[in-house]
Amino acid sequence: MKKIHKILLAPFILFLLLFLGGCGQAKKVNVYQKVKQSRTMIWGTRADTRLFGYMDIKSSKIIGFEIDMAKAVTKQMLGKDAVAKFVQTTPKTRIPLLKNRNINAIWATMTITPERKKQVDFARPYIGAGASLLVPNNSKIKDVHQLNNKKVLAVKGTTAVADIKKVAPKAKVLEYDDYGQAFSALKAGQGVALTTDNCLLAGIASENPGFHLIGKNYTNQPYGIAVDKGQDELRDHINKALLALKKNGTYHRLLVKWFDGIPGFNIKEAEIL
Length: 273
Hints:
By secondary structure, the protein is of the alpha/beta class. It has helices at 2-26, 31-38, 65-78, 94-99, 114-117, 160-167, 179-187, 198-206, 232-247, 250-259, 267-270; strands spanning 40-45, 48-49, 53-56, 61-63, 83-88, 105-106, 120-122, 131-136, 151-155, 172-176, 193-197, 211-214, 226-228.
């Protein structure tokens, strides 16, 4: 009887395995085809990074360079009537939100790194970010190499701490919990310069007259748009849209809109599309 039961169960087990396998394949959604049909693109963005993506108190909307570019890419990719929606993310939540399909892509000052490439795929870089320095206008510091034997301010947990040691190994780095504390220390004269991404420093400089960025970026850490692994069609269409926006002048116009006049910020250095 046991042999008969096994023979009878065998086709059922085979059917079950094929069914489950089919379900697993069905879960592999083509995100581009989905957004093309809905004509809606959901972007994961920052809402706390001035100039890139931050909450405007007057309008209660997220505004910034990345927001404007995301809207332009959405319409370029899906048509003039397409809609760009935005979900607030943080460095901790953005990849999980992408993996769970709460968002279609990440556009949130995300540095392209080998470690992140293991989890997501990146479209082409859209802005030339890298470590830089913010100093008071009366500072005698003109170059990162002058920081040896000087106190430099940075934020705990950022790559800036290690980066500054590579170019100015004798610099004394004072670490703070956040950029607000680090910038307050700079204003108080507790260090000669604040170091982090040039793009973040541009945001600080834009609302604090009397401070400016100096020199060229001393690291090369461009930002990129992230899509989930396997979403090659979406990535390729984002790339096509980016290049079209470069060609028609939208990209340059938006860079100028948000970054022109920021003391020491080099738009030519940032413009890498």
